[in-house]
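Hi everyone, sorry if this is the wrong subforum. Our group has a chain we'd like a structural model of before ordering constructs, and none of us has done structure prediction before. Sequence below.
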Amino acid sequence: MHRAGKKECNPVKDSPSGRIVTATDLIRHFAAHSRHALGEPVHIMNHGHVNLSLISRELFLRLNEGPTTVADDSRLAAKLDVILDMIPTMVILADEQLNLVRINLAARKRVEVSEEEVRGVHLSQVLTEPAHQFSIRALERVRDTGISEEFELSPPDRPSLVCRIKATSFPRGFALLIDEITDRVTLREQDARNAAYENLIDGWPGLARGNFNVRGVVTDMSSALATLIQTNESRIIGVRFATLFDASNRGAVSDAMEALLTAGQPFSLTATLLGSDAQNRAVWVNAAPLKSTGGQTGGVFLIGPSPLAVMGN
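Answer:
Right subforum, don't worry. Here is the predicted structure as tokens:
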């Protein structure tokens, strides 16, 4: 029983959320309680009262920052709006009913709308092109399942344009993140095509291929070249391309390499590889410049049986 008019104190009921332990238990199992405090506070009861709490450093720093004001939130939102309008990714934010909340500059240019006229409008009335309907259905699936989706899409009227689209959940709503990746897809297709050509060359007996840099030094090669020269691949990488040939042809190869590396002039000639068998000394050498956006970066070469030897057979 307790005196009338005096409120009974329940230390468990009156404490904030978290685990409550006694001071003795904290001392005995401090390591376990410390790990638990990383997720939620551990309140320490001593003589029936909770006066101390064990919290994580992250929570302490967050509490030490103090409460944010409406003005702080507004300034932060304004800064985020500026950042959103600076990035090339198209960003469209919607609420739980898929009504538009925010559309950044990149997306506004693509859809050709102003944010004022579409804010609060359902996405189906903003993204009216047939290709956009797939994105809206993806958002609806995210809303139903909670699972984000990511896919690539090309508009029917612009098949050369490729976009990567991510539909995902967002605090109090959903987000569409759209990046144009046409250049990356083109590079991916070029890489696949180059790999196919390399496999084709490597499968042809007697053909060797490789690259050299702007100094004429071999940087990459197929194993067939080591077989033709009768040496290890490690002894070819890092040497000048012209030194792979017999002294009687080295000057002609060096001159052709000079013209290729300085003027971008491809060449084709017959020369003799070092270490070749006596019956197969003459080979056909073809090289072309390798260029990038920054200029010429070297060249590529193809070595195979001499045309005269092929014709003689």
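For your construct planning: The two ends are 116 Å apart (CA to CA). The chain has three domains: 19-64, 70-180, 194-312.
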